[in-house]
């Protein structure tokens, strides 16, 4: 290995690391290093032993099927809404399709503002009223 001083790009630490004297003695020999590594590994493995003993319990009676429930009892697995509606649930402007607060008294079309009311195609023009 080259001398650390010869490499100008090596980053130098400004403060020195303080290590306890007993730790210096323990890290001096390779036997102590391997023993410490093995002890750390065993401690890590012992931390996870509780997770390995957990087993999944398969219980046929604890299913989420709603077969046992009568048909009138609502559940999350069974939708309780009726058939889809043919009309729109909200009121939207016929011109710009934003929410509308007003209804035309002549034709019943919905609009969101007076400006949009002026844009509504009148049914008399298209011949929708008076046809029998």
TrEMBL record:
Residues 91-115 form the HIT-type domain. It comes from the Eukaryota. GO terms for biological process: chromatin remodeling. Keywords: Metal-binding, Zinc, Zinc-finger. Transmembrane segments: none annotated. GO terms for cellular component: nucleus. Pfam families: zf-HIT. One of its GO terms (molecular function) is zinc ion binding. PANTHER family: ZINC FINGER HIT DOMAIN CONTAINING PROTEIN 1. This is HIT-type domain-containing protein.
